[in-house]
Specification:
The complex is a heterodimer of chains A (324) and B (262).
Chain A (H helix, E strand, L loop, with lengths): L3 E4 L2 E2 L2 E2 L1 H17 L3 E7 L3 H7 L5 E6 L8 H15 L3 E5 L8 H8 L3 E5 L1 E5 L2 E8 L4 E7 L5 E5 L14 E4 L11 E7 L13 E5 L9 H11 L2 E4 L1 H5 L20 E5 L5 H4 L7 E6 L6 H4 L2 E4 L2 H16 L1
Parallel strand pairs in A: 1-4, 1-6, 4-5, 5-12, 6-11, 7-11, 14-15, 14-16, 16-17, 17-18
Antiparallel strand pairs in A: 2-3, 8-9, 9-10
Chain B lengths: L1 E5 L2 E4 L20 E4 L1 H17 L2 E7 L5 H10 L3 E5 L9 H13 L5 E5 L10 H9 L3 E11 L2 E7 L5 E7 L2 E5 L11 H7 L4 E4 L8 H4 L6 E7 L8 E2 L4 H14 L4
Parallel strand pairs in B: 1-4, 1-6, 4-5, 5-11, 6-10, 7-10
Antiparallel strand pairs in B: 2-3, 7-8, 8-9
The structure holds flavin-adenine dinucleotide and adenosine monophosphate.
Chain lengths: 324, 262
């Protein structure tokens, strides 16, 4: 009892960072409630992952089977369902990632588990676990209590916890998969690579980024003028690329590109966590947004709270003047 | 093809101030403007595109109050054939698993081949209802889909993964897909459609109509409870530049050029 399980996430031969972030928090929780940390690893030819994970937890439970060469939510659900019933952990942590959100809600329904998604923190209050999540794109936080009995299930937002160094020597235990054949109702077919465009924004030194605040495609010229004046490439939030103002390969964020320019100027971008994840590596961030509460200001170095249509043309003009 | 599309009316809070109300458990939504959730708008379009290509019917489902009717009529105007709205004060609409249970009960009343939802509702941001709904219906699913190819008895769904990579999965029908924004270009409702939509069927159902026991979906039945809402700690390290727009522009230009940033 009191054990904290973490689903190890990996894709195409690489462990994903969220795994170690969750294991760090799991360690803190397990210590507080008197349990062990257990990494659950499901894959094919993943011995080295198991060894690596052992440095971050008390135990690695793992399945190594060609049936798991590629991620499949339904197969994961079957495995985790069985593990939960066999081991009865206090808590199972799954990434709030494209893998996790495709599986966890179904598992919660199947086993009738107390379930909270997109958790950004877990407060331990007198031995009770209280997850924190957000509403309205980060404008409000919410503290939850689990009412039902454990096991509890949560999905954890990426970068909510910092991954610590692993210095443990956990036990490694291989387990049998309860299913022997591939599923006929959901089949992995292939990966399709992201499209490649004319400019690789991951290499850009200076970026001007536009968001929904630009309102219409024809207003793009305002951003283009600024970009021209400072020799920047253009990129955007998902709202800007979904609207077709910019090609998809110019999208910054979790489902787009991770950029690392020395200067990032965000125009009319609110700063959803999916967007912010893509600009963590930017050296200087400038945000121009008329909403003082926009989360982008939490990440920015310089902020202007104002109408971008008033400020940006002036900014371009001043920069041109100063440059002479 | 019989396609169901789940849509939710959500507030646009991107420019609004979000204030916690006196109960400490909800926000004051009196000043918000509401419309169909972004991803759901794409789901409606995708359903209509599939119907146009393969034939069939599109049925809109929403759990919400009467004010949702306007949004529902717009979806009908674009090409939806009929709609169900579920409204019952006993339902805990804040619990995505309860929402999924109710939507499943509404959909299960009829035969279906495909159910589309958005991948995320922008207000609560749960990213849970679609996949939970699939489990309630006992059918396969794929989440975060940005391209769909319907074949005989199955679909190929292109799931969007991190970093622009996608994964193609093949799932058998009937199935649930949660639709990601950007999958298509949502149309505007034609005037003619708006008029026609007024005559299309929009059934309003309660828990009793769905034969759901309130003990399965009310607040008491939820396994998690909200303790309180609170304003996130401001971690801003931004230097906010003050003044008239022109002054701000000038100060920033100076900082960028003379501060060695540019
Ligand atoms: C699975 C998933 C993956 C995602 N991946 C990404 C991703 O990779 N990248 C990404 O960006 N998003 C991603 N999103 C979407 C993300 O959640 C947000 O919806 C999106 O980032 C919002 O874009 P935005 O900031 O441009 O628009 P909004 O959130 O609508 O913000 C517009 C902003 O413009 C401001 N504004 C309006 N008018 C003006 C004006 N005149 N002057 C100044 N400011 C103004 C407003 O105050 C507001 O803050 C993803 C979502 C999901 C569900
Ligand atoms: N009240 C509702 N009525 C109809 N559909 C809903 C409702 N709530 C959520 N959904 C659907 O589920 C999707 C995901 O919502 P969520 O899990 O809350 O992020 C939405 O995009 C909708 O398609």
């Amino acid at each position: 009892m009191g054990d904290v399980f973490v689903l190890a996430e990996h894709r195409r031969g690489e462990m994903r960072e969220i795994t170690f972030e969750m294991l760090t928090k799991a360690q803190e929780i397990a210590s507080a409630i008197g349990g062990e940390t257990v990494a659950v690893l499901i894959g094919s030819s993943v011995d080295t992952f198991a060894e690596r994970l052992a440095a971050y937890c008390d135990k690695v439970l793992y399945i190594d089977d060609p049936l798991f060469a590629d991620y499949n939510s339904d197969k994961y659900q079957i495995v985790l369902g069985k593990l939960i019933q066999d081991y009865k952990p206090e808590l199972l942590m799954v990434g709030h990632t494209t893998q996790g959100v495709d599986m966890a809600p179904a598992l919660a329904v199947e086993l009738n588990l107390p379930f909270v998604t997109d958790v950004v923190d877990i407060i331990i209050d007198n031995g009770k676990l209280k997850p924190v999540r957000q509403y309205y794109s980060g404008k409000v936080n919410a503290l939850f209590n689990f009412k039902g009995e454990p096991p509890y299930l949560i999905t954890v937002r990426e970068a909510s916890f910092e991954a610590a160094d692993g210095s443990k020597q956990g036990q490694i235990q291989k387990i049998d998969f309860p299913l022997k054949e591939d599923l006929d109702y959901r089949r992995f077919v292939e990966y399709v690579e992201a499209e490649v465009g004319d400019v690789d924004i991951t290499q850009s030194e200076i970026l001007v980024a536009v968001g929904r605040g630009l309102k219409e495609e024809k207003n793009l010229s305002i951003a283009e003028e600024l970009a021209k004046a400072i020799n920047a490439d253009l990129c955007g939030s998902r709202a800007a690329t979904d609207a077709g103002w910019l090609p998809h390969d110019r999208q910054v964020g979790t489902s787009g590109k991770t950029v690392k320019p020395k200067l990032y100027i965000a125009l009319g971008i609110s700063g959803a966590f999916q967007h912010l994840a893509g600009i963590k590596g930017a050296k200087t961030i400038v945000a121009i947004n008329k909403d003082p509460e926009a989360p982008i200001f939490n990440e920015a170095d310089y902020g202007i709270v104002d109408d971008l249509f008033k400020v940006v043309p002036k900014l371009t003009e001043k920069i041109k003047e100063l440059k002479g | 093809m019989k396609i169901f599309v789940c849509i939710k009316r959500v507030p646009d809070t991107s420019e609004a101030e979000v204030k916690i109300d006196a109960t400490g458990k909800d926000v004051d939504s009196s000043k918000f403007s509401f419309d169909i959730n972004d991803a759901d708008n794409y789901a409606v379009e995708e359903a209509i595109l599939i119907k146009e290509a393969k034939g069939g019917k599109v049925k809109i489902v929403s759990l919400g109050d009467q004010e949702s009717d306007l949004m529902i009529r717009m979806a009908l105007a674009k090409g939806g054939d009929s709609a169900i709205r579920v409204e019952d004060p006993r339902i805990n609409v804040k619990d995505p698993l309860k929402v999924a249970k109710v939507l499943a009960a509404a959909i299960k009343q009829e035969e279906f081949d495909l159910v589309l939802t958005g991948c995320m509702a922008s207000d609560d941001g749960q990213m849970a209802v679609g996949v939970a709904l699939a489990e309630e219906l006992g059918v396969p699913h794929a989440a975060m889909v940005k391209k769909v190819e319907v074949e005989e008895g199955k679909v190929r769904a292109y799931r969007e993964l991190e970093g622009g990579l996608s994964e193609v999965v093949e799932i058998t029908l009937p199935a649930v897909l949660t639709i990601q924004t950007g999958i298509n270009e949502p149309r505007y409702a034609p005037i003619r459609g708006v008029r026609a939509a007024q005559k299309k069927e929009l059934k309003v159902l309660t828990l009793d109509d769905l034969k759901l026991d309130e003990k399965e979906v009310n607040e008491e039945s939820s396994l998690v409870e909200l303790e309180k809402l609170f304003v996130p700690e401001v971690v801003s390290r931004a230097e906010i530049i003050e003044g008239e727009p022109e002054e701000k522009a000038e100060i920033l230009a100076n900082k960028l050029l003379k501060g060695g940033i540019l």
